[in-house]
Amino acid sequence: MCGIVGYIGDKLAQPILLNGLKRLEYRGYDSAGMVTYLPVKNSLSIRKLPGKVRVLEALLKKKPLSGNLGISHTRWSTHGEPNQVNAHPHLDCKNEIAIVHNGIIENYAVLKAQLIKEKHKFISQTDTEVIVHLIEKFYKDCSLENAVRQAISKLEGSFAIGVISRREPDKLIGVRCGSPLIVGVGKDENFLASDVPALLDATKEVIFLEENEMAVLSKDKIEITSFSGVPVKMSPVTVSWDVSQAQKGGFTHFMLKEINEQPAVLENMLNQRILKDRPEVFFDQLKISREEIFAVKNITVVACGTAYHAGLCGKYILEELCKISVSVDLSSEFRYRNPLVDKDTLIIAISQSGETADTLAAVREAKKKEAKILAVCNVLGSSLTREADGVIYTNAGPEIGVASTKAYTAQLSVLYLLAIYIADIRKTLDTNTKIGLINTLKTIPRLQEKILKNQKEITAIAQRHHHFGSFLFLGRHINFPSALEGALKLKEISYIPAEGYAAGEMKHGPIALIDEYRAVVCVAPHSKVYEKMISNIQEIHSRRGKIIAIASEGDEKIKELTREVIYIPQVDELFSPLITVLPMQLLAYDISVKRGCDVDQPRNLAKSVTVE
Ligand code: F6R
């Protein structure tokens, strides 16, 4: 939550900072701001406004900022409403130091009271402002980095910050503690950013700061130290993402582009993770040995939101193929309930961003109990990947749309492959079945493409249903999590109340909701629970609910109950979530567009939930 970009070099800072902010807007979009250092006046010049980065861009067109040193910010507000005063950057009393911050300062109230007593003037309601006044307090006869070091020693909470000072305009300082921050390595220029996409135009060489590290950048030097000042060995990494992956590529929205990327994401995954010469799954950074996996007695998945839904599907897949008990927990629940995990437990922590605060806390809790941690993650070098014992990267490329789509497919794909891998070790699959499963997986990208070609039909259904005031999504067995995911997609981007339910639970309450004003999406592909779904659909039909069925090609029976059928290709039930979710993503997308909502940046949300 919140995006930071910083620049020091010979070039004009403004366009680089602005471009970076646009790429980080998925992290928050309540307000945006920028400050640069103007050598002629020896001053810090600031522009900030409530609203999205494009509002800041318009202001900068009228009132550009010059200078070759600057920091900028796009905000997801925690403390203080999203107005101009609360927007970052924040300045100290003398307008000498500027700061941008991502995270939460938990003890800010105590610090603020103390600083006010010491005559510091506060103008915002933010927690961030205490940091810049603390730096000011310590910035007497010492360097900026020394003052920052003293200031952060007083802070409790999580923070990534960028700091500049007009007293030392040859320095750009970045600090990481609980929120992500990376250094971009350039030639005669260096950068700070919350995430890789911000820097893709400028450099592919990055250093992922570790927890409790500080970077002091000048245009031709990078120094990284621990908070106590001990130099740290730097290990730059070359990122493989390219600029085009962070652009819309002709699509109207990132979400639509990312929905359409799913067949390629799956295909790449299969090419990378299945040996060419034999039907074996392999993972290059697993770092958990076959012996360790063999010794595992149970598996717990921890995740939030869409990743949690992938985890719920994972339970069906892993239990079916590996014959091992799997529990799935919301990270935010797991972390506070003294969970029963131990050294015999494998924790699978699923997260697109690898920065979700609750999932990181759940992992830390499990580590204390000596469980092995396997991260399933999309973002290279993210906190989760560094704290886990082993990692399986989902390699879906940057996901910019706030609503997760291709990352979900990638997470599911990893879970299928991981289940085959573990089943192999536990000898719960015979070779022919394994070959059959791998061959079926390889057919899925083509089947997904078929659905994507049919978007027009789904758009027409969206046209007929976008006015409904609420939706119910029903599914059974492995498509129960698909129903949850369908409901989440719709509610988060169209703001229509939508609930996902296990269809078998319908008579235990939700059936009371059914009338002619209720749209009910029923996930009903051919499967062993198909007839049960048909019974549910009949019950909804007789209560005049408006059914949208997702059914297998050739299913004529379902037509008797509703004229709104989205046909999907037939596939083995176990793999059906990779297919059934696509029409629901498209439906949510089309309804959101029809209702004029902001598809890629829905209100109140941020992609990376780095605070509790
Ligand atoms: C929904 C969505 C969120 C995330 C959740 C976890 O479309 O994107 O529910 O899935 O915030 O985020 P990660 O996967 O980054 O841990």
Shape: globular
The poorly predicted ranges are: none
The CATH homologous superfamily of the largest domain corresponds to Aminohydrolase, N-terminal nucleophile (Ntn) domain
Query: If helices are DSSP runs of H or I spanning 4 or more residues, what is the number of helices?
Result: 18
Arithmetic mean pLDDT = 95
Strand content: 15-25%
Ligands: fructose -6-phosphate
The portion of residues assigned to helices is 25-40%
Radius of gyration (CA) equals 25 Å
Task: Give the strand line-up of the largest sheet.
Answer: 3-2-4-1-10-9-11-14
| Most strands sheet | 8 strands, antiparallel
CATH topology of the largest domain: Glutamine Phosphoribosylpyrophosphate, subunit 1, domain 1
Can you tell me the CATH architecture of the largest domain? 4-Layer Sandwich
- Give the domain tally: 3
Structural class: alpha/beta
- How far is the first residue's CA from the last residue's CA? 11 Å
**Strand tally, please?**
24
Identify the CATH class of the largest domain.
Alpha Beta
Overview of the molecule:
The structure is a single chain. The radius of gyration is 25 Å and the shape is globular. An eight-stranded antiparallel β-sheet has the order 3-2-4-1-10-9-11-14, covered by helices on one side. A six-stranded antiparallel β-sheet has the order 5-6-7-8-12-13. A five-stranded parallel β-sheet has the order 16-15-17-18-19, with helices on both faces. Helix content is 35%, strand content 23%. The longest helix is centred in the C-terminal third of the chain and has 23 residues, at 431-453. Strand 20 (470-475), helix 16 (480-494) and strand 21 form a beta-alpha-beta unit. The chain has three domains: 3-241, 4-Layer Sandwich (Glutamine Phosphoribosylpyrophosphate, subunit 1, domain 1); 254-452, Rossmann fold; 455-594, Glucose-6-phosphate isomerase like protein, domain 1 (Rossmann fold), CATH 3.40.50.10490. The mean pLDDT is 95. The chain has 612 residues and is of the alpha/beta class. It contains 18 helices and 24 strands. Fructose -6-phosphate binds next to helix 9 and helix 16. Residues 304-307, 351-353, 356, 359, 403-404, 488, 492, 608-609 line the site of fructose -6-phosphate (F6R).
